[in-house]
Amino acid sequence: MKVAMVVAFFLAVVTTFWTWYPRATVQSDEETLQGQLLTYKHQEVKPEEIAFLQVATWNEESESPQVFIVHQKDGKWLIQSHHDYPADGKDRIGRTAGDVLNVRAGPRVTGGSSEHEKLGVVDPTDKNADAKKGRGKRVTLKSAGGTALVDLIVGDKAESGDVYYVRLPGDNSVYTAEVKPDISTKFQDWVEPDPLKVRRGDVRKMVIRDYSIDETKGTVEQRSETELAKGKDDKKWSSPATPEGKAVDEDVTDSMLSDIAGMRLAGVRPFDPRWLQPRGFFIDAKQGRIYGNEGSLEVYTKDGLFYMLYFGEIALGDEADQSADAADTDGAKKSEDKAAQNKDGEKEKGHNRYMAVFAGYSPELDENLAEADAKLKADLEALKAPKEDKKGEKKGEGENPEEKKDEKKDEKPKTEEELKAEHAKAAEKIKNEGHQRAKKAMQRFQKFFYVISDDSFKRLRPPLSRLFKLKKPDTATLPGDKVNDPQDLIEKASGLFYADLEQGEGDEVKEGDKVEVHYTGWLASDGTKFDSSLDRGQPFPVEVGKGGVIKGWDEGLQGMKLGGKRKLIIPAELGYGAAGSPPKIPANAQLVFDVEVLKLNDKAAPPKSAKPKEAVQPEVQLQPDGE
């Protein structure tokens, strides 16, 4: 079933902010804070008072401060430095605040600024500082009213003891303190690792779409659509697009599910068409649809929810893009394009990539509804079933007075109309709950689009060539001479399978050898014989490894010996491919050949297979197209 990719667009509000740092009073050399709390007015601060956390570090590459901010708004923790994306706030804030909260100053190390660079306590927000190195980490905790409860620059670890050099901004004095400087400013560490909130065992279907977009004409051309499905009781994935002789590669689907259920975000952007369009998303406003330049993945779950993941261009995840104004999208796009190229003008690999997500609900896919329908059917069948005839039973036989008493309390059996009405009510509840779940999910997705790793993108939308792997043939069902032992079937890296039926003698066939063979070929799908040199009584000459025959033969003949006989199972890629060889061989056909070497260069083996007949041309040209 195809679900229409109709999407309602929502504009996210991009909040700009100014970073404010409190000014501290400069101490004289005679004053010292040793033994005092490094907090506002040196008083104990309760964790629940904190409503704002800011960590500033120095980016040596850009030679500028890098600021990470988390704040509380309407009772929720949001990452202000990342467009107010929801943070895993409560636990993370508590752990982070605890690293610098209510710590006491140890001995003063110096009262002057000359050693700040050496001790690593140069203020990272001070652009005017002369120091090229020694920038510390500035941690600021504020109350809901904006009061700086803690404002501390943490430097290097002291030479002795488990303490670090610290100082207050605006104060040249440096102390030691038992702080923990490993405060994470990584976006990934502050957000839930599972934005889709999908359990891998709940996924029932995945659809990979590949298409090309002509933005100038506003047209979309579908290139391929591959559906992967796994029923409730199925152990393996299947696909109607599975080529003959192949099976869905479970390693690939397992990798896809791992990324779906445990996706790691590298960043977020406001969901605004001005941000989306220059980052690889085509928006068809008239049709209310969105397309990703790099295709899409649809994920369907057992409760009827589906998620549509659209993939855009390569994202650098750089500071400029994270903090850019929505109006400055043209400049950001040019910057990305330039930085995403190597010296040869080619796109670099390993960058992040943009992704937009939408969610919906399809009752037809909801297994809860299917179970409700099955229950109704069973109840109706039970209602129509003939009642047990109790005539002839002896009165009181097997009766329990208490059970008889309970029977009188049993409700009157429900009628067919009552059962159907009950079912309709239950079904409506299931549907309403499904729509509510989809609505709740869209409340998350309508505000942001995402940045994921390019590796994650490649796992989520693998190429068709990786989706399917060759299935080891069942030797018992192969046409022609039987393979003595299934263990005799050898698989080559190319996808070719072979088994030696008779070993032969002498030298092995190698590339460049000239051989004459007898062969018979069948379609692996149904065992139809399409050609045989035996029927013609005319051996077939081959110069091995020179491209005069299909690739499966060039590879499969090598290693045989004079008089030897081998069964070849050749995948379509080594045979006639997607074109086939009409009318005998259909597209994407896996082939089976029994081949016997009658002559190797100037040596001949006694003929065993057939007596010579009048020469007749092969019914199928074993040479590849164009030969």
Describe this structure in words.
The chain is an alpha+beta fold. It is 20% helix and 30% strand. It has a nine-stranded antiparallel sheet with strand order 4-3-2-1-6-7-8-9-5, covered by helices on one side. Strands 21, 22, 24, 25, 26, 28, 29 and 30 form an eight-stranded antiparallel sheet that branches. A hairpin with a 4-residue loop joins strand 14 (281-284) and strand 15. Helix 8 (367-384) packs antiparallel against helix 10. The longest helix is centred in the C-terminal third of the chain and has 30 residues, at 416-445. The model is unreliable at 1-29, 318-349 and 392-397 (pLDDT under 50).
Strand order of the largest sheet: 4-3-2-1-6-7-8-9-5
- What is the number of E strands? 30
- Identify the overall geometry: extended
Low-confidence stretches: 1-29, 318-349, 392-397
The SS-based structural class is alpha+beta
* Nearest-integer average pLDDT: 83
